[in-house]
Amino acid sequence: MAKFKRNLVTTALPYANGPVHIGHLAGVYVPADIYVRYLRQKGEEVVFIGGSDEHGVPITIKAQKEGVTPQDIVDRYHNIIKESFKELGISFDIYSRTTSKTHHELSSAFFTKLHEDGKFVEKTTMQFYDEKAEQFLADRYITGKCPHCGNENAYGDQCEACGTTLNATDLINPLSAITGNKPELKETKHWYLPLDQYESWLKEWIIEGHKEWKPNVYGQCKSWLDSGLHPRAVTRDLNWGVPVPLEEAKGKVMYVWFDAPIGYISATKEFTPDWEKYWKDPETRMLHFIGKDNIVFHCIIFPAMLKAEGSYIVPDNVPANEFLNLEGNKISTSKNWAVWLHEYLRDFEDKQDVLRYVLTASAPETKDNDFTWKDFQARNNNELVAIYGNFINRVLVLTDKYFAGIVPERGELTDYDKEVLADIPHIIARVEKNLNTFHFRDGLKECMNLARLGNKYLADTEPWKVIKTDEGRVKTILNICLQIATNLSTLTEPFIPFSAKKLRAFLNIEPIAWDKMGDGVIAVGHQLNKSELLFDKIEDEQIQYQVDKLLATKKSNELENAQATPAKPNITFDDFAKMDIRVGKIVEAEKVAKTKKLMKLTVDTGIDTRTVVSGIAEHYTAEELVGQQVSILVNLEAKMLKGIESQGMILMAENADGVLSFVRPDKEVKTGSEIR
């Protein structure tokens, strides 16, 4: 990094059509924050850029489903995402958004420059059009069968089952996601970035020039380049996005993949008037932290855009991660199979670092990995509490007990003391090496190895026994332990910053620069503050609640996909006409004694007041039934149930999970009204 004066770190812009989940955090935001905090500790100049991607079809689809505007959707989720990131300690210098005025202006200027320089090609092509909806269909508005893996629900731009990038015309039996109709092909004109013209440069830049990139990133780029690049549309027929700044392109917007990465630039411009030195000075090192689904955009397409513009630098590294699964299944926003950050922060108050720790310890750095709530609990209880927290607590309690919380002087060192002290700089060096190469999981392991070293040293030397015979020896032991504790407060700061700050408060010290770590980092005679537990156990009940919540989601998804029961044999209209169904009102209700399901109801039918016994006691209380309007079959033959004559039947709808609900008018009508 010596050849660079400064660092620009960006993170993939999350779609503002839903909250952030743990997959996003493990793949992008926690690793990026670890790295940025590390650079700051080293005293390097760094700007950390984030923001919400607020254009694109997923947002328009969600808005249509909810009957609101796309702006309503992005305003809601941008604020949720921004606040959640802040609470987790993701230390952005700015968290912007692509609906900002600055972004629209800069995107338009970027497009105009490329257009004026002749860097686009224009094409009139046949694209899918939905006659019923009277609009061209963006790729995400088209679903069909994937020609590669056979997935029946592939989108027009990508199959989420096999990950293959598609064109909508590749799909087998394409259908409009808006109306369900089969779309027709219709002429439309668009502007394309001719990626094939940058293929040679990209091969030289990536394949020859960046062999140090992570294997998953390098391999995916090589595969794309070996397959050959083709022009890619930068505009689309849509009414939500950055308008194309051409008179002949009225009603068209920039393709979201084109304007979204420009969001990094516009956010930097919002942050500082000196934004150009971060984007145009070759002495700036640019890094993109992303997930594997964004590798092509950040390693091939965006660099080609920057190269075409001519005045921008290109990224030095793109340390992308693989995917994190949840309890053995792929995280799915649409199926609500996720651990949402804003919900975690509510359910586990003041435990931001536990999530940061677990997501780093199980980070999908080289292959997909799995998050489970049992592992989450085990890592907290067996590692943070039992190793790190236990060491810190014992050292501080013993120092307070024996030496009034004052760092004691050191006497003559044993060979074991020297060995332990010699291990400290080796561990620090290994953490640094891992951070420099984006191996955050291994870096965290080394941090915990320092805590393990301290724990073992304390257990081996047993100062609580030695104090009875050799106070001077105990002073040496606790001095060494306090050196380890103080180094841990700096070493773990990138990973678990809230706990590092809490530890510094116990030690009564200010933040220590990275290069100041080592022996002697805390002085003899320094007064410590009173301490408390650094971490606390997570109980089984808390974990079971989270597991139950996921199981309920799984059951709900299964029910949603369940087929309705087959229709019964046809009847004649005369058969139906024999039934006298009326709107009644429940005036009294009581549970039938010694039964689980039966409720005795007194119902005003408009004709008379009668008793009906109904099997709804597991679904409604007697109190909430009184006053309810219901549908009642009044000419059903009376039947004795538990010694009570039931004179009719209340009509109920039964869900696939057995839950019952009343069938009744959507507004109050006169009691006795006939249902026909």
Summarize the helices and strands and which ones pair or pack.
Layout: E1 6-11, H1 22-41, E2 45-52, H2 57-66, H3 70-88, E3 94-97, H4 101-116, E4 121-130, E5 135-136, E6 142-145, E7 154-155, E8 172-176, E9 184-193, H5 199-208, H6 215-227, E10 232-233, E11 235-237, E12 252-254, H7 256-271, H8 275-280, E13 284-289, H9 295-309, E14 324-326, E15 329-330, H10 341-347, H11 352-361, E16 369-371, H12 373-403, H13 415-436, H14 440-461, H15 463-466, H16 471-491, H17 497-507, H18 540-561, H19 573-577, E17 581-591, E18 599-604, E19 609-614, H20 622-625, E20 629-633, E21 639-641, E22 644-646, E23 649-650, E24 652-654, E25 660-662, E26 674-675
Parallel strand pairs: 1-2, 1-13, 2-3, 14-16
Antiparallel strand pairs: 4-5, 4-9, 6-7, 6-8, 9-10, 11-12, 14-15, 17-18, 17-20, 17-26, 18-19, 20-23, 21-22, 24-25
Helix pairs in contact: 2-3, 4-7, 5-6, 6-9, 11-12, 12-14, 12-16, 13-14, 13-16, 14-16, 16-17
